[in-house]
Write a structure and sequence with these properties.
The protein is built from 15 helices and 15 strands. It is an alpha/beta fold. The protein has a single domain, classed as Succinylarginine dihydrolase (L-arginine/glycine Amidinotransferase, Chain A, 5-stranded Propeller). The strands form five sheets. A three-stranded mixed sheet has the order 2-1-15, covered by helices on one side. A three-stranded mixed sheet has the order 3-4-5. The longest helix is centred in the N-terminal third of the chain and has 17 residues. The radius of gyration is 20 Å and the shape is globular. The relative contact order is 0.18. InterPro entries: AstB_sf (IPR037031), SuccinylArg_d-Hdrlase_AstB (IPR007079). One of its GO terms (molecular function) is N-succinylarginine dihydrolase activity. Belongs to the succinylarginine dihydrolase family.
């Protein structure tokens, strides 16, 4: 089977808003209370998908989850809340969150070449550290089991028990000679982050590796640097990203960087490790710009390209480093800025918006794969049905709820996905 990397992007949902629910995510906290623009956000995301298709890459799409979430509202007794109670308002906002757009947190994925049964395994992330995200995984599993229903090619696992926090592919990297051969799977966990929680637990990562039937000799379990978490790197993909033989990382990403690099080289001798020095790009600049929350991709030409947010290109220290790297003939040959400002303002860059799945596209439900005609169709639905803007004070409005529910229903109808209604 021809195995290729498919990037499944989450479409920004019609309830996209800035409620500031994500502790440790600096952009989310800094923009709390701002007016959001769901229509523009979704169109920006679709623009990134079109950009990647134009590069010759295979692109998929996941739909927004049901919002406002009636299951969470009922379970918390929030059908009628006390508007003077700030805690109740935040809990209600959680039920409206569009955070499933960041599909890097949907699941951890191990391609068929790495697994004992020769199938691609996906384990939904439980996301228990953040209340607004912990509600996602049951609906995520429904969508994953629909998209990857071919049981000869895929197995989709429920989330690991909530006693251990799991944040999915945002804390997982895979290195390999090429996507279609056995690789080295790197699981990154945290232990402390000062005032901010370490969201990925080591035992959750080890459980996922066991569920996927991975060869223990081709797995690494690496601790994220506590100073990175404390500085706002709430996921490893804010400070490191890998693709095939290349690891692109900030020097302060890992608790034991030299030990990590040595372990990678021992298991994958052809590894190229590109380290950005803090003396050139500070940890603060790396996190604010989301330099590493980028899509490091193998282009059809065989070159590697880095899809970065405009914010990274506009940060002088980052742009200088990138231009110098390309000029020096480093492994990253093309730098490709994209506009995802609405997502960035809520703390998610190009890498947050996608889940990487190495598979034969013919084994995936075609309703989840994109081409130009389907992109145009989705853009039409978004332009017609997504709210133009949402003020945080609007959260809980019955008229807005009707509008959001109607918008998602229109999308599912357009994509012929009644199973997700």
């Amino acid at each position: 089977m021809p195995l290729v990397e498919i990037n499944f992007d989450g479409l920004v949902g019609p309830s996209h808003n800035y409620a500031g629910l994500s502790l440790g995510n600096l952009a989310s906290a800094n923009n709390a209370g701002e007016v959001s623009y769901p229509r523009a956000a979704a169109l920006q995301g679709l623009g990134k998908m079109r950009h990647n298709i134009a590069l010759g890459l295979t692109q998929g799409l996941f739909t927004p989850l049901p919002r406002p979430n009636p299951v969470l509202l009922k379970a918390l007794g929030l059908e009628n809340i006390d508007e003077s109670d700030g805690v109740q308002r935040r809990l209600r906002a959680a039920a409206w969150s569009a955070s499933s757009m960041w599909t890097a947190n949907a699941a951890t994925v191990s391609p068929a070449p790495d697994t004992v049964d020769g199938r691609c395994h996906l384990t939904a992330a439980n996301l228990v550290t953040m209340p607004h995200r912990s509600q996602e995984w049951p609906d995520t599993v429904r969508q994953l089991r629909l998209a990857f229903a071919n049981n000869q090619s895929f197995e989709v696992h429920d989330a690991v028990p909530p006693c251990f926090g799991d944040e999915g592919a945002a804390n997982h990297m895979r290195m390999c000679a090429s996507h279609d051969v056995p690789g080295l799977e790197i699981f990154v966990y945290g232990t402390t982050g000062g005032a901010f929680p370490a969201r990925q637990h080591e035992q959750a990562s080890r459980a996922v590796a066991r569920l996927h039937g991975l060869n223990p000799e081709r797995c690494l379990f690496v601790e994220q640097a506590s100073e990175a978490i404390a500085a706002g790197a709430f996921h490893n993909d804010v400070v490191a990203v890998a693709n095939e033989r290349v690891l692109f990382t900030h020097e302060q990403a890992f608790a034991d960087p030299e030990g990590t690099y040595a372990a990678i080289r021992e298991r994958l001798p052809e590894a190229e490790i590109v380290v950005v020095s803090a003396s050139i790009v500070s940890l603060g600049d790396a996190i604010r710009s989301y330099l590493f929350n980028a899509q490091l991709l193998t282009l059809p030409s065989g070159e590697m390209g880095l899809v970065i947010p405009l914010e990274a290109w506009e940060t002088p220290s980052v742009r200088s480093w990138l231009e110098g790297h390309v000029a020096s003939n480093g492994p990253i040959r093309r730098v490709l800025p994209v506009d995802v400002r609405q997502s960035m303002a809520n703390g998610g860059g190009p890498a947050c918006l996608r889940l990487r799945v190495v598979a034969d596209p013919a084994t995936v439900d075609p309703r989840f794969l994109l081409n130009e005609a389907k992109l145009v169709l989705v853009e039409q639905v978004v332009s017609e049905h997504w709210p133009e803007q949402i003020d945080p004070a609007d959260i809980g409005s019955e008229s807005l709820a009707r509008s959001v529910i109607k918008a998602r229903a229109a999308l599912l109808e357009a994509l012929a996905l009644p199973e997700l209604a």
